[in-house]
Predict the structure.
Amino acid sequence: MRFDNAVFETSFGTSGQLKTSDLPEIAFSGRSNVGKSSLLNRLLGRKSLARVSSMPGKTVTINFFKLDSCRFVDLPGYGYAKVSHDEKIRWADLMEGYFSSGRNLKLVVQLIDMRHAPSQQDIDMIEYMTANEIPFIVALTKCDKLNKSERMKQLSEICGILTAYGSISVVPFSATKGEGVEELRGLIAKALEK
Protein backbone atom coordinates (compact mmCIF):
# COMPACT_ATOMS: atom_id res chain seq x y z
CA MET A 1 0.00 0.00 0.00
CA ARG A 2 1.22 3.48 -0.86
CA PHE A 3 0.91 6.23 1.72
CA ASP A 4 2.55 9.00 -0.34
CA ASN A 5 -0.19 9.63 -2.88
CA ALA A 6 -2.98 10.93 -0.63
CA VAL A 7 -5.05 13.89 -1.75
CA PHE A 8 -7.52 15.98 0.22
CA GLU A 9 -10.95 15.09 -1.10
CA THR A 10 -13.72 16.80 0.86
CA SER A 11 -15.03 18.03 4.24
CA PHE A 12 -18.44 17.74 5.83
CA GLY A 13 -19.79 19.78 8.74
CA THR A 14 -23.07 17.92 9.29
CA SER A 15 -23.98 14.24 9.27
CA GLY A 16 -26.58 14.82 6.54
CA GLN A 17 -23.80 15.78 4.10
CA LEU A 18 -21.93 12.47 4.45
CA LYS A 19 -21.68 10.51 1.20
CA THR A 20 -21.95 6.72 0.96
CA SER A 21 -18.79 4.88 1.93
CA ASP A 22 -17.48 3.33 -1.31
CA LEU A 23 -13.91 2.61 -0.18
CA PRO A 24 -12.46 1.12 3.02
CA GLU A 25 -11.91 3.85 5.62
CA ILE A 26 -9.30 4.39 8.34
CA ALA A 27 -10.51 7.01 10.83
CA PHE A 28 -8.38 9.10 13.19
CA SER A 29 -9.94 10.17 16.49
CA GLY A 30 -8.68 12.13 19.48
CA ARG A 31 -9.11 15.16 21.65
CA SER A 32 -8.32 18.65 20.41
CA ASN A 33 -4.60 19.45 20.31
CA VAL A 34 -3.53 15.77 20.52
CA GLY A 35 -1.52 16.08 17.29
CA LYS A 36 -3.89 14.43 14.82
CA SER A 37 -2.98 16.62 11.83
CA SER A 38 0.74 16.24 12.57
CA LEU A 39 0.36 12.45 12.78
CA LEU A 40 -1.56 12.33 9.50
CA ASN A 41 1.01 14.48 7.71
CA ARG A 42 3.89 12.34 8.99
CA LEU A 43 2.09 9.10 8.13
CA LEU A 44 1.42 10.36 4.60
CA GLY A 45 4.89 11.83 4.13
CA ARG A 46 3.50 15.34 3.57
CA LYS A 47 4.15 18.62 5.32
CA SER A 48 0.74 20.26 5.24
CA LEU A 49 -1.90 18.00 3.70
CA ALA A 50 -3.83 17.98 6.97
CA ARG A 51 -3.93 21.50 8.38
CA VAL A 52 -2.08 21.92 11.67
CA SER A 53 -3.49 24.63 13.90
CA SER A 54 -2.06 26.42 16.90
CA MET A 55 -5.63 26.85 18.13
CA PRO A 56 -7.25 23.76 19.70
CA GLY A 57 -10.74 22.89 18.49
CA LYS A 58 -10.16 24.16 14.95
CA THR A 59 -11.04 20.92 13.14
CA VAL A 60 -14.83 21.16 13.19
CA THR A 61 -15.49 19.06 10.09
CA ILE A 62 -14.88 15.47 9.06
CA ASN A 63 -12.09 15.62 6.49
CA PHE A 64 -11.59 12.89 3.88
CA PHE A 65 -8.26 12.10 2.23
CA LYS A 66 -8.20 9.67 -0.70
CA LEU A 67 -5.39 7.16 -1.11
CA ASP A 68 -5.09 4.54 -3.86
CA SER A 69 -7.18 1.86 -2.11
CA CYS A 70 -8.83 3.58 0.86
CA ARG A 71 -9.73 6.85 2.54
CA PHE A 72 -8.24 8.37 5.68
CA VAL A 73 -10.88 10.16 7.72
CA ASP A 74 -9.83 12.97 10.07
CA LEU A 75 -12.55 13.22 12.71
CA PRO A 76 -13.04 16.52 14.57
CA GLY A 77 -11.16 16.79 17.87
CA TYR A 78 -13.20 16.59 21.05
CA GLY A 79 -12.87 17.99 24.54
CA TYR A 80 -11.99 21.63 23.87
CA ALA A 81 -13.60 23.57 26.74
CA LYS A 82 -14.09 26.87 24.91
CA VAL A 83 -16.49 25.43 22.33
CA SER A 84 -20.11 26.53 22.67
CA HIS A 85 -22.89 24.17 23.79
CA ASP A 86 -24.46 24.28 20.29
CA GLU A 87 -21.10 23.40 18.74
CA LYS A 88 -20.73 20.41 21.10
CA ILE A 89 -24.20 19.19 20.05
CA ARG A 90 -23.31 19.60 16.36
CA TRP A 91 -20.05 17.70 16.97
CA ALA A 92 -21.90 14.84 18.74
CA ASP A 93 -24.42 14.63 15.88
CA LEU A 94 -21.63 14.63 13.30
CA MET A 95 -19.72 11.83 15.08
CA GLU A 96 -22.85 9.75 15.69
CA GLY A 97 -23.83 10.24 12.06
CA TYR A 98 -20.42 9.10 10.87
CA PHE A 99 -20.28 5.95 13.00
CA SER A 100 -23.90 4.94 12.38
CA SER A 101 -23.99 5.50 8.60
CA GLY A 102 -22.82 2.04 7.55
CA ARG A 103 -19.25 3.05 6.76
CA ASN A 104 -16.77 0.53 5.40
CA LEU A 105 -14.70 1.30 8.50
CA LYS A 106 -11.67 -0.96 8.83
CA LEU A 107 -9.90 0.72 11.74
CA VAL A 108 -9.94 3.72 14.06
CA VAL A 109 -6.60 5.11 15.17
CA GLN A 110 -7.39 6.56 18.61
CA LEU A 111 -4.85 9.22 19.58
CA ILE A 112 -3.93 9.86 23.21
CA ASP A 113 -1.27 12.34 24.35
CA MET A 114 1.34 10.13 26.00
CA ARG A 115 2.20 12.85 28.52
CA HIS A 116 -1.19 12.49 30.23
CA ALA A 117 -3.56 9.79 31.41
CA PRO A 118 -6.46 9.18 29.01
CA SER A 119 -9.17 11.81 29.55
CA GLN A 120 -12.74 10.81 30.36
CA GLN A 121 -13.63 11.60 26.75
CA ASP A 122 -10.82 9.31 25.52
CA ILE A 123 -12.27 6.54 27.72
CA ASP A 124 -15.80 7.30 26.49
CA MET A 125 -14.58 6.95 22.90
CA ILE A 126 -12.80 3.66 23.66
CA GLU A 127 -15.89 2.33 25.45
CA TYR A 128 -18.06 3.35 22.49
CA MET A 129 -15.80 1.55 20.00
CA THR A 130 -15.55 -1.53 22.24
CA ALA A 131 -19.34 -1.71 22.74
CA ASN A 132 -19.96 -1.30 19.00
CA GLU A 133 -17.19 -3.74 17.99
CA ILE A 134 -15.34 -1.08 16.00
CA PRO A 135 -11.72 -2.19 15.49
CA PHE A 136 -9.23 0.31 16.90
CA ILE A 137 -5.62 0.80 17.92
CA VAL A 138 -4.09 3.50 20.12
CA ALA A 139 -1.33 5.90 19.03
CA LEU A 140 0.37 7.62 21.97
CA THR A 141 1.37 10.98 20.51
CA LYS A 142 4.16 13.35 21.57
CA CYS A 143 6.26 10.49 23.00
CA ASP A 144 9.42 12.49 22.19
CA LYS A 145 8.43 15.04 24.85
CA LEU A 146 9.12 12.52 27.64
CA ASN A 147 12.45 11.29 28.96
CA LYS A 148 13.06 7.54 29.16
CA SER A 149 11.79 7.01 32.73
CA GLU A 150 8.73 9.25 32.26
CA ARG A 151 7.95 7.42 29.07
CA MET A 152 8.15 3.95 30.66
CA LYS A 153 5.95 5.13 33.55
CA GLN A 154 3.30 6.64 31.24
CA LEU A 155 3.32 3.63 28.90
CA SER A 156 2.81 1.27 31.83
CA GLU A 157 -0.01 3.38 33.33
CA ILE A 158 -1.85 3.90 30.05
CA CYS A 159 -1.57 0.24 29.03
CA GLY A 160 -2.82 -0.70 32.51
CA ILE A 161 -5.95 1.42 31.98
CA LEU A 162 -6.50 0.01 28.47
CA THR A 163 -6.34 -3.66 29.56
CA ALA A 164 -9.98 -3.31 30.69
CA TYR A 165 -10.92 -3.12 26.99
CA GLY A 166 -9.14 -6.24 25.74
CA SER A 167 -5.96 -6.67 23.78
CA ILE A 168 -5.23 -3.33 22.10
CA SER A 169 -2.21 -2.48 19.93
CA VAL A 170 -0.52 0.59 21.45
CA VAL A 171 2.05 2.53 19.42
CA PRO A 172 4.19 5.34 20.89
CA PHE A 173 4.34 8.00 18.17
CA SER A 174 6.37 11.12 17.45
CA ALA A 175 5.43 13.31 14.49
CA THR A 176 8.69 15.22 15.05
CA LYS A 177 11.07 12.26 15.02
CA GLY A 178 9.04 9.77 13.00
CA GLU A 179 8.92 7.14 15.72
CA GLY A 180 6.01 4.74 15.27
CA VAL A 181 5.35 5.67 11.63
CA GLU A 182 6.28 2.30 10.13
CA GLU A 183 4.48 0.37 12.88
CA LEU A 184 1.30 2.39 12.33
CA ARG A 185 1.52 1.96 8.57
CA GLY A 186 1.88 -1.80 9.07
CA LEU A 187 -1.18 -2.00 11.35
CA ILE A 188 -3.23 0.07 8.90
CA ALA A 189 -2.18 -2.09 5.94
CA LYS A 190 -3.05 -5.23 7.95
CA ALA A 191 -6.50 -3.84 8.83
CA LEU A 192 -7.18 -3.12 5.15
CA GLU A 193 -6.46 -6.74 4.24
CA LYS A 194 -9.38 -7.98 6.39
